[in-house]
Amino acid sequence: xxxxxxxxxxxxxxxxxxxxxxxxxxxxxxxxxxxxxxxxxxxxxxxxxxxxxxxxxxxxxxxx
Length: 64
Prior knowledge:
Radius of gyration: 12 Å
Largest sheet: none
Order of helices and strands: HHH
Number of helices: 3
Number of strands: 0
Distance between the termini: 13 Å
Shape: globular
Number of domains: 1
Strand content: under 5%
């Protein structure tokens, strides 16, 4: 097993599918802050389709 943190959906730190929890764990970020910033970005930006991106990430990122 490598020491590198791999991107995967979190089983323990999840609200819906574990996408934001997995991203936060991979980069060493706070999961709650990551979720809040993602929602703010999704609402504030008409060019960023947050729900669609989340669904695509849910399908592409493997579960841990």
